[in-house]
Amino acid sequence: MTARVESDEKNDTYAHLDETGRYRVKLDFSREDAEQGYNYLWIRQAKPYAGETYGWHTPLIDGTEVGIAFDGGDPDRPYIACAFHDSEHPDVVTRDNRSQNILRTAGQNELRMEDQRKSEHIALSTPFGATALNQGHIVDAEK
């Protein structure tokens, strides 16, 4: 089932998390009209890498559409299984740049890995100071 991540402030710039990294979500079918950020229990997000002192967490911000699953099918054990792009939040990789692998944060920090044959490169960039680090094929070599 689908839901939306909620922050205690509408359109918050940063993720609204509890002390263990869980999120509040509002199920799409919910008709409850609770105070912003208090529509559901705190729930965990499944991640590709997790351990006692290490892990990978790319925070979800207010309005992110997520897929909710249930551990062992138990409705008392929901978790965020995935995040979706939608018409308001388009995917960073589409038909036009399908050879790229992109990780871009809400702050526009970006790791881009280009797999186009004979143009392979990795670019790491940040909007602060418009700085970038490039490895491999020289991007914008004519500049």
From TrEMBL:
What is a single Pfam family found in this protein's UniProt entry? Answer: Phage_base_V
* Superkingdom of origin: Bacteria
What name does the UniProt record give this protein?
A: Phage_base_V
Q: Where is the Gp5/Type VI secretion system Vgr protein OB-fold domain?
A: 18-84
- Upper lineage ranks? Bacteria, Pseudomonadati, Pseudomonadota, Gammaproteobacteria, Vibrionales
Could you tell me which SUPFAM superfamilies the record lists for this protein? Answer: gp5 N-terminal domain-like (SSF69255)
According to the entry, every stretch annotated as the Putative type VI secretion system Rhs element associated Vgr domain falls at: 104-142
